[in-house]
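Dissemination and training. As part of the outreach component of the grant, students in the summer workshop were shown how a complex can be specified as a set of sequence lines and then modelled as a single object. The example used during the hands-on session is reproduced here so that future cohorts can follow it. Participants entered these lines:
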Amino acid sequence: MGGDLGPRSVVPACIRFLKKFPEAELKLFGPRTQLQSLIDAERQPQLSGRLEIVPCEQVITQNCNPLHALRHKRESSMALALQAVAKGEVQAMVTSGNTGALLALSRSILGNIEGVRKPALGKSLPTERGSCFLLDLGANIDCSAEDLLQFARMGIEAQRVHTGKRDLKVALLNIGAEPHKGTEEIRQAAELLEWDAKIDYAGFVEGHDIFTGVVDVVVCDGLMGNVAMKSAEGVIRLMGQKAFTIEKSGYFKRFFGQLAIKLLRKWRTQVEPARYNGASFLGVKGNVIKSHGGASSEAFYRAMITAKECAEADLAARVGQAMAQA
Amino acid sequence: MGGDLGPRSVVPACIRFLKKFPEAELKLFGPRTQLQSLIDAERQPQLSGRLEIVPCEQVITQNCNPLHALRHKRESSMALALQAVAKGEVQAMVTSGNTGALLALSRSILGNIEGVRKPALGKSLPTERGSCFLLDLGANIDCSAEDLLQFARMGIEAQRVHTGKRDLKVALLNIGAEPHKGTEEIRQAAELLEWDAKIDYAGFVEGHDIFTGVVDVVVCDGLMGNVAMKSAEGVIRLMGQKAFTIEKSGYFKRFFGQLAIKLLRKWRTQVEPARYNGASFLGVKGNVIKSHGGASSEAFYRAMITAKECAEADLAARVGQAMAQA
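and obtained this result:
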């Protein structure tokens, strides 16, 4: 029910998902009448057997604060979906709703995996050679060196699921590659990562290195990760905007300009947030996927694909094993 | 002498600058023979009267640490250029050398402007509507609320110089717009900014808002600012890279692809770091401009334009006045 478009982006994405994956079954949490009319509008009655509405009238708005959600929104679509995860009725849940509420409700309803100090939000981002998993994206503001080490362990499992690669290089996000750079926590985390026999630690990287593909997992606190991801999104949007302005300016190569814009759009889809939609909330007992709040139907579909990958590999269980063996 | 290309990018930029601005005079600090041969190669003898070499053999390498620079590099090209600023022999200095050394030497040779707790590095970035001044970009890791308030005051003066606009909106970079978001320092800084009658404070913004143009100045600590700027640079490079890959892939519209790439390059120049090169080190007694370490001759030229703007308006003096009146 969340995000800018609510079920208007979710329902078409679900229909597409069910068509593409004949073995999939979906549960939709929200007000029955609204969801049913959106489903009916898609005119795919043959899919209805695999698309169940779980009716609930309570929803969490975008400006609801996490504490309020914890206390008063236990019957909301988000909370009920998390309860379905907790009971094992579903293997993963996807939402584009209020992030703060999601993190708070996930911790409370699913609980932390044993040994996990702080669950973290992470996501695969495009690079020149493939992808890079960045975490934490904003779930945790204050992170100790030990927290960052745990993020590294969890991020490795997530990126293994997304790429199928076993050997992954891990780096810490910092403002320079030299060992004296950064905060005390970052420098201490570097020590811990260097000494960890199970982690291939590659040192400090800077913001631009997230996108070059020199490493597979980049670890940082939620403040830095959030800023890195959102700044990158901002620039991608800006480039689209600039191209559009030039298009309208009546440039004499307008014809070629049109073609160029088509190509630019194509290139852009390779890096834009929509394609890399779906952040995983790692460290809780269940697969929880956060879709971008501004997600289109296309972007929500991508988040569902991410959720499917996590469900099939049971990422939460793998994180649990990794933490137990650490 | 610094940066990836050293004087090979600086000398051609100087020649172009002297041609463009007939009233300008330049001093070049570095080994005489090397600089002279680069100048000779440009074959512009009529400009030589306005381009003076100040010979010095000592240079600061990219991995020299700030403390070492302070103690042992007092005769380096960077230190001598700063001394020329301190003596009033030049109105601004530009370098693409070691940032840490520059900050340390600037503080030591020029000294802080009265009342300034921590000088900060800031820079204009492109937005959908114009530009936005972001600071601190990495000079300071730990910043108190009071430091952030000072950054705001200094950033406003810098952005006034760059845009000519008097009324500017200021925001704090955070991971969400809601008042409970972020660290204690950020929330306290919000209080201070709200109560400051001389600052038009617009609240918290997120990383993507730096590039939309909703505000004119964005304030944050050096960790967040550095990550925001470098992530943005990384994505711009990635988009260029992706376009190049598709070009090589033998797409059947290869002909149009070529034209499209030309247009893409044109768009890219509007947002790429080269065009917005030249960060100002604000809060020291003199105009000090840091050019990107990977700066091409074109990019270094842009940093010189930034320096010219700062010199003409005497940004350092304006920051001094703003701090005295605060």
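Chain B has eleven helices and ten strands. Students were then asked to discuss how this feature might be tested experimentally.
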